[in-house]
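Why does residue order matter? Because the sequence determines the fold. Keep that principle in mind as you read this record.
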Amino acid sequence: MQDTHSKTIGYILWVFGFFGAHRFYYGKRLTGTLWFCTLGLFFIGWIIDLFLIPGMDKEADNRFTAGKIDYNLTWILLGFLGVFGVHRIYMGKVFTGILYFFTAGLFGFGWLYDLWTLNQQIDEVNRS
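Structure:
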């Protein structure tokens, strides 16, 4: 089994999990959005997720392809430098990375799009 995602990063993101951060990281876009809109299902789902993270990590490891682009590093770059497009440049998407740099992540909407689709984008690059 390939190790694409980290339980450690999952637990660190769980601290902000009432905003759905760990769920987005593990590729659970719909529930990540639900957690974001309801503060982790009114904090109840957030507490339950503390025990579900190992399963989410295993599922993400099985679902996504390991390769030249590291999932963990790309997620860290998105989190801290996403509006500057550094994660996109790291993935080889230099044009859109530069575009993000000059438009603050396409005015935040591009950053949100990447929050939703980053695992799939990395998976696509790793498969090619």
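The chain has eight helices and no strands.
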